Known about the structure:
The strands form 3 sheets. This protein has a 6-stranded antiparallel β-sheet with strand order 13-12-11-16-15-14. The protein is α+β, with helices and mostly antiparallel strands. α6 (160-175) runs antiparallel to α8 (266-311), α8 packs antiparallel against α9 and α19 (598-612) runs antiparallel to α20. The protein has helices spanning 8-11, 18-30, 67-70, 73-89, 128-157, 160-175, 211-220, 266-311, 315-329, 370-378, 435-463, 472-486, 493-507, 515-523, 534-537, 545-551, 554-562, 573-577, 598-612, 624-633, 644-662, 670-674, and strands at residues 34-38, 44-49, 93-100, 105-115, 119-126, 177-186, 190-198, 224-227, 238-246, 249-258, 334-341, 346-353, 364-366, 382-384, 407-415, 418-427. It is elongated. Helices cover 45% and strands 18% of the residues. The structure holds ligand C2E, succinic acid (2 copies) and fe (iii) ion (FE) (2 copies). Ligand C2E is lined by residues 539, 542-543, 551, 579, 607-608, 611-612, 616-619.
Amino acid sequence: MKPISPSVETRFPGRPSSDTDAILKTIFQIFPDLLFYLDEHGVIINYLASESVNFFTSPEQCLGRHVLDIFPPHAAAQVLSAMNKTLQNGEISTIDYEVSTSPQKLSYSINCLKIKTSNLILIVRDTTEQKRKADLAEQHRKLMGTLQESARQLSRELDSQVLGNVITQACVEYLGASEVWLGWLKIGQGMQELTYLSTGSTKTSLSKPTDNEINTLLVNKLAILETSDPGSNSQPYSRALFPILANNQVMGVLGLVVEQADFFTPEMIEYFIAYNSLVGSAIQNAHLYEDSRRQLSQMQTLRSIDQAILSSMDMKSMTEIILKEVAKHIHVDALSLLILDPKTQMLNFVDGFGFHYETLRHSHLRIGESFAGQVALEKRIVYVENLQNDPKNFSRAARFHEEGFMMYLGTPLIARSEVRGVLEIFQRRPFEPDEEWYTMLETLSNQIAIAIDNTLLVKFLKDSRLELTNAYDATIEGLSRALELRDRETEGHTRRVAKMTVELARRMGVSDADMPLVHQGALLHDIGKMGIPDAILLKPGSLLPDEWEVMKQHPLYAYQLLAQVEHLKQAMDIPLYHHEKWDGSGYPYGLKGEQIPFPARLFSIVDVYDALTSNRPYRSAWPVDKTMTYLQSQSKIFFDPAVVPVFRQLILRDTIPMRRDARSHSKTTPIQQLFK
Ligand code: C2E
Ligand code: SIN
Ligand code: SIN
Ligand code: FE
Ligand code: FE
């Protein structure tokens, strides 16, 4: 309880009666701010005040004055009507008012109550602090609302720059900041400015932290606060640097300047910590989204390159698509693509863009010759920061120096551990690639290498005069083995399933004349997996939905690939339909029952049998009996019910007599030995 002020009686002996005095004291104990006791005319005849009361005038000087004279006019009118109301109905009335004094606004709340017949007591409470807190709470509420709105907006825009603008704008509008700086940590580049906003009279850039301050923030994770010197004559200000945390790491800094001294009170700071944690997760989400958008666009690039791989026979149109995609995703002034001719071992220029002259169009380089030759020889990136320092390397091209290139970067295109070509990048201005750029380049060059590889393969197929040959299967096996080279786990799988499928087809009454197509189709069944990126094909775990969508393209890829080769078209049934299921739940078309071509219905049970009894990057081999139980359970669901018992007979007849011998060979299942 605050101390009661010096005895009322000593100053005004005899004026109020002692019971009035007792009432006053009791009230004062409950409202220990300021009490005025008025006579029936409204003249202040007594008061009680705590020492700490902050009334705009000294209570003592109010004694003997009419109550309406002591309040400023706008407050006096309210006080008068409150007093009249209380005098009339005897109830307590309340008014709130504000008085502007330098340096701050004071707020008061007055309760007016009647004692005796016509004496009033005014209870004056200083509500400045309370009001300030309420205003602040309102401000916070608005700010939080803004942020939530911006978060909602964000889920549509998801652009960290837009978000940054929303945040700085909110700080200016709702906090009255005159200057805001928002920085965000960029990997490898330190704290980078995201947005800066200044509305104040002074463009001081005071909200921007110094390098030292950033280091302190990163280490301490605590706000840095500063306020103007009260003695100084210059414009008062408060300055604060708040760390923005995400996952308990300092990810950014919010710097604020407000043209008011001592603005950052403890509650304000507490509020900002909460605010900044929202800002932190919002910006992080924005960045995550930007990353995934970039990855998505990268994926689309890969898809169009995949399309090029599978739909285009000729090297020229394939490279055109590739170069266009590369240019779209990495910033380059000029680009050239050299492909290694496997026969002559020469690197030949096939395409490029961004050159002013025809300068490099006639490049034919031996391995080891010039930068590109060096890239191919050493199978690594060659990066030259400034070509001007090293002009002799492009003596191969007339007028090369007139292109004005500065940076050179050559990257090898490697597929199945063989160099297929070199991609060369030129920049006319200084250019320092960052990690992300390199990652994109690496992904692109892998795709290009696969594209070249496949194009060479198809060219080889075409050149092999397949239409006439008896060496047909040899070629096809060569082709299917190209996939085995990538996907080592499936080694031997192709030849095993081809043999088993032919045997099953014989038992199901397929004629000898049709047998070669069944055999070839089985050999080529997964050739479409050539179009599946390593990251998915060789993934050790289960596939994510996006990855699965890519994987499910493999029958269609097979179709696109094989449709180009006249005689292979007839062997298409198995590659295209081997993942259709009897109940219609398969892919790519969801065919049902006898809609599925018969060879594919024969093949799918063999394929699943062999897949399950083999190790895969994503699981180890199942035992034969578990596999057979599974296949039986899938009759009419996955497999043609007419095929299942015949396949069962085939396996059991062949397996049972061999079981005894096979026991000691832990890795190989009996059926695998049989079909070796
Ligand atoms: P794959 O490994 O040669 O499997 C061929 C088919 O055998 C599969 O077609 C599926 O019908 C059956 N199969 C293989 N393993 C299992 C298994 O563990 N459980 C069951 N119930 N059936 C199995 P599907 O499902 O259309 O898959 C096609 C290809 O997609 C697979 O060829 C494989 O290359 C890839 N794939 C499927 N699932 C995964 C996975 O979880 N992770 C990875 N990395 N690849 C997968
Ligand atoms: C292989 O068989 O391993 C290559 C193609 C395929 O999986 O069928
Ligand atoms: C395989 O068939 O050998 C693996 C999965 C698939 O058939 O696509
Ligand atoms: Fe398949
Ligand atoms: Fe297969």
